[in-house]
Every structure is written in C-alpha cells, then in structure tokens.
Amino acid sequence: MKKNKFGKEIFFLFIGFLLLLxxxxxxxxxxxxREYIQTTAIVEKVTDDKITYSYVVKDExxxxxxxxxxxxxxGDKIKLYYHKNNVEQAKLNRTSNIIFLxxxxxxxxxxxxxxxxxxxxxxxxxxxxEQYKTKVISVLGQTQKLKIITDGDTVSEYANSL
Length: 162
What we know:
With 162 residues, this protein is an alpha+beta fold.
C-alpha cells in the first residue's frame, strides 16, 4: 500500500477550507447585521420566560417580546436593534466581531497547508534529481582528470581537455 506523501498538508488544507467557508458565512452575517439600527427600549412586562418591551421609531411606538434575560426588571431601559426596512423586526443584541476568530484561524491554516504542499513538492522534486559530484583529481597540461561521484560511489573517471 502506497503511503500518502501529503497527509499533514491535506489535513491543513481541508480544515482551512472548511473554516474559510465559515469566513464567508461570517461576512454575510455581519453584512445583514449592519441593517439594524440601535435605539432604546423600555421593559414593560417580565414573565418567567419572556420580556415585553416597547420602543419608539419616528414618533410611532412598537412592542416586541423576547426571551427573558437575567437581571432585567420592569421599567429598565435596554439597548435594542431594529431593522431599518422593517421596524417591527427587533433584537436585543448585535453579532459580535469575535465570530471572525474561527474563520481567520481557518485562513491561517489554509495558508500553512498551501505553503507545506509547495515545500513538500519542491523537496520531492529536489530528491528526484540525481546528484552528481565531480572532483578534479589531476591536471596534466590542458587536460583535467575528473572523478564523478553518485551517492558516494565513484561512477567513472573522466578526462576533459581545457
């Protein structure tokens, strides 16, 4: 069975590629998140699992419900983000830029994988070429006597006229 020469490199490329795809997803999420505008809302009702809050946009009041957050009481002012094209679509927090941490790691791993594949390919190409060493063992007039060495073994002696 033939051993895979590029195991580590393919691993880096594969993981890097998957994380690079997640970078594309993150860019999409952040671009959608930019369509939300911050405002202040007032908590009107708190139940066991939901909170109801109201906010005003262009002199019109809107009400929304959301999952309960710890520490929120009736009358508290909270940050709210509403969609600029659909004011009734609101959320309590924006996506953090920390989501880029994993995809950027993927980008780095992908680059490492590509560099490793290139280095491995170059090294393999260098090993495939036969290395010949020559040594001048004597000079007589216009003729040099050379010794050609391959893998440490003398292959032949050769006389070369200058």
